[in-house]
Predict the 3D structure of the following.
Amino acid sequence: MEIDVFTLFPEWFSWLSQQRHVANAIAAGSSLQCVDFRRYTPLGGGQVDDTPFGGGAGMVLRVDVLDRALQAHYGVDPVQLRERRRVIALAPAGRLLDERLVSELAQEPELTLLCGRYEGFDERILEHFASDVISIGRYVLSGGEVAAMVLCDAVLRKLPGALGDERSALEESFSEALDGNPEYPHYTRPAEYRGWSVPDVLLSGHHEQIARWRAERSRERGEQLGGGR
Ligand code: ADE
């Protein structure tokens, strides 16, 4: 998978690229590239934003700046670009990122992520350049970068070779294998600690009973969260 991140803070992503599963995904052929869109601004002094029409606090990312940056990077009108690759703007009011959406995005060969700052994007960027607007939760971050990192982390760990053990991604929280429920509880040594013991069934070596116990715990947790699938 090829991921391009349009951001004013490209250096933030070098930390992400060094994380084990991201580095593994990159070694296995994926790419995580950043484009500093300030480089392409047609305005003086590296300006990328402006005051909102109608007044109000904060600054808004300009549509002409992102138009120019996307055109320059891809050599195609961004209005057409979104027909051939997912162009995702990160914004608090977008579609909520969940495991299903992460799995959907992990099937894509290419993603472009647009990180807003300040008060956010000029609405015409979302209307005409983005194929998706995605939110990582109903709270406001100071920009889209952290949200883009969350998305990259969740998507890249789904790719073959990213995790040391492929089984980790198969039977984890919200996966098909668990009917969309959260994962069951895990325990490791010591079997007894400060009087807190590990459930007997997990020490029994009885695989069927363990599988049944795990499925029940997972289902219970799903019910507590308001139902899996
Ligand atoms: N940008 C600012 N807040 C955000 C959020 N919650 N999700 C995605 N992008 C954002």
